[in-house]
Amino acid sequence: MTRNEAPHEPPAVLTIAGSDSGGGAGIQADLKTIEAVGGFGTSAITSVTAQNTTGVQGSHLLPIADIEAQIQAVLEDFDVRAAKTGMLATGEVIETVVEYAEDLPALVVDPVMIAASGDRLLEPDAEDAYEELVAESTLVTPNADEAVVLTGIEPTDEETALEAGETLVEMGADAALVKGGHIAGDDVLDVLVTAEDVRTFRHERIDTDATHGSGCTLSAAIATHIAQGESLADSVSAGIDLLARAVRYNLDVGEGAGAVHHLVEARERAARTETAEAVEKLVDDLIDSDVAPLVPDIGTNVVGATPFAERIQEVAAVEGRITRTMDGVAPNRGVRFGASTHVARYLLDAREVDATFRFATNWRYDDAVADALDTLNGDVVELDGHPTLESGVVSALADAEGPVAVVDPGGDGRVPVTILLVRDRETLLNRTSQLLDAVDDLVSTDGIQSPSTRSRASRPRR
């Protein structure tokens, strides 16, 4: 018996750009990004470069007839919903792309002129040819250096970036995204300009030099979102979000600074099943261990972040928390992503310091727990004086190493709480077991009251 096919119909996206033998930029970066975002990547290679993370060692321009043949072959067979350009190298290549522009529903122009390594990728006499291509573009995405070449205006702040963007729109572009990665400042500010509107996108700068392929990845992501029918503003916003994450979780490959992680969002989604299963197993193990002596009146949550988590929706947690019952502890409901805000925010803030933190849970905090924490290995940091639990996390964890327990003694409406931060499931179980043992020892020797609902003797020990 044969199986029926179940074909998928992703929108086709065409990239017209140079090949990067190092795989981090150019055609390679474009195709990875297009597929990751949900499109079907097609290509027309303009140049073959010999390059890696340290620089460009050589470049060979393909004959114009070969470039035209590639573009024509793609357009004759595929319903191309959007295209993007990268390294075009010469005025003749740029003019060739202009000839096909009217056949493209949308065209994102990434005016590649200089590689991240500093190597020039555009012949000086080809700069003027870009004016005609800009005029045909749905969106042009220059960085600060490219904006200077195209407009004569150097973006150094929001005002000058806006001025450069307005000039590009006056040149004929439907929209211009002036990127802020090359503009100094604690934040990266990207400015999107159309004839009707101006939007700014701001995000914190990532402390890394691993930005190889960033422009290619951004423009490919935007083109793919446009191909899927999204608005220009939403496409730009989604592309910027992807790039910010791709730069933070960059790929440590090669001898140079490394490349951006083109597939980071796809990898994040793929990790959700494993993460949810790990949290579910943690909950089962904690219930078997009867953690009632550690559960505060407000209940306990167990959260787990995917390796690339940036948002609460990417953190799995117990919906409704774990609470004490007559028979020990039990979860109110199952595990789902986005179910926790308080503990999840804390874990996400901790990941700003060290992204290897994957799991966290909240336990009660009182004299018994405080004394018990003193007996454990690892760092204990206190957030006393901070207005909210999460607000002091980054500074408090800056010098911490190994397993971490963060405590807030409460006050000003805050409930006292202990948070265990760990990198793997087993460490959380072991730390919890050690904390339970230490609390029980203090209860038995000092008579400190514990909210346990049954005898510690009946609880499995680890």
TrEMBL record:
Q: Which PANTHER family match?
A: HYDROXYMETHYLPYRIMIDINE_PHOSPHOMETHYLPYRIMIDINE KINASE THI20-RELATED (PTHR20858:SF17), PHOSPHOMETHYLPYRIMIDINE KINASE (PTHR20858)
Entry EC no(s): 2.7.1.49
Listed under GO biological process in this entry are: thiamine biosynthetic process
| Provenance organism | Halorhabdus tiamatea SARL4B
The protein's name in its UniProt record: Hydroxymethylpyrimidine phosphate kinase protein
Per UniProt, residues of the Thiamine-phosphate synthase ThiN domain are 279-431
Q: Which GO terms describe its cellular component?
A: cytosol
One GO MF term:
phosphomethylpyrimidine kinase activity
Domain Pyridoxamine kinase/Phosphomethylpyrimidine kinase, by residue range, is 20-261
InterPro entries (alphabetical): Aldolase_II/adducin_N_sf, HMP/HMP-P_kinase_dom, PM/HMP-P_kinase-1, Ribokinase-like, ThiN
- Record keyword Amino-acid biosynthesis present: no
Keywords carried by this UniProt record: ATP-binding, Kinase, Nucleotide-binding, Transferase
Task: Please name the CDD domains in this protein's record.
Answer: HMPP_kinase (cd01169)
